Write the structure tokens for this entry.
Amino acid sequence: MDLQEKLVASYMAQTSATAEPSGLAKIRSAAIETFEQQGFPTKKMEEWKYTPLNKLVKTDYTVFPKKSKNLTLDEVQNYILHDVDTFKIVFVDGVYSSFLSETTHEGMDVCLLSAALSQAKYRKVIEKYFDTVADSEDSFTALNTAFGREGAFVHIPKKKRVEKPIQIIHFSTGVNQNLMLQPRNLIVVEAQSEVQIIERHQSLTDTPVLTNVVTEIFTHKGAQVDYYKIQNDHEEASLVDSTYIHQEKHSHAKVHTFSFGGQFIRNNLHFYHKDQAIQSTMKGITLVEGKQLVDHHTLVHHAHPNSESHQEYKGIYNGQSTGVFNGKIVVEQEAQKTNAFQQNNNILMSDKATINTKPQLEIFADDVRCSHGCTIGQLDETALFYLQTRGIPKKEARALLTYAFANNVLASVNIPAVKTRINALIAKKLGVNLGFNL
């Protein structure tokens, strides 16, 4: 039995043992049918041309955890942002950890998706939003829709500024060999509200793990969402991260993605503009080595006038690592006065590193300002020589130039503790002490 067959069979077994509202059950049933028909993506598909899945689909993953392990704060403290007060939703091997978490229902809901699914008072919100912006035809998204019963549920009411960031953290302990996790996050931010969210998936051992996560974010009129993804996992960990964002008038959604570790990372980030005067911001830093692969696929769909989108991704590839960037901007005929920018800059630190970059514009309006571009190169040898003549060792000089290359992405991070953490991760990846804090 291959992995696809195993997943379909496991879904049937799970369904027979789980009672859910009929509407949600129909959504899951349609999703597993989609996955069964499509199977896993192959390199014959244009969207997966440079991203092979052979190793992943040949692994015999455990769909349901058979063992559990309790974690102490000391074991995970390095992965939790602890130098700033935050709400925390923490999962261990797919199971909620109340000991490590800090949730709330005071004036807003920061809690579990499973709790929201089981309580009638949240049912209207779930029925209104769940699986309404996610791409139901995407194979990995359909798989998550079928299986995803646990994750974060965040509902911010109107005119609420959340004073503390929210951390969503998934730990894998390695007690379950070849574990496959399917977290599902639902985030609804009502009109004129603001929230900051930090998401991390972290394995604690070298045991292989595959995480297939889907996040749906709804930003209503005038809402602001500031979202940070920190990806710095072990070399045997793989991640497929699909995030779908629904934006309404005057809203501003920002997503920063920091990809430093993991054997395989695929980030699907889709923004859908449902009204005018909308802002979308996507920024990212990728710094990988060895045989790691990081694939960023972005989409901004401008369907209404007077909106803006800004994409800026920096990639630094060492060893035999591979990078993929496929960014698409679609501007419909009605979306006049659109201002869309997209830039992907890459540095290859090794002769064996590879980058495949494909910025795309599909413009059907005639009164727009849209631009895109990409660069691929190496460190400036003249600048490197200059720093060395000033007494800076070659290793530190290379690190400073590399850091300077990525720094403008860090400049837009609004949580100082996150900025400091990313700065430390970059220094560690470069193997130097940069000698300053952000």
User: Anything to note?
Assistant: The radius of gyration is 21 Å. The chain is about 25% helix and 35% strand. The first strand starts at residue 87 and ends at 92.
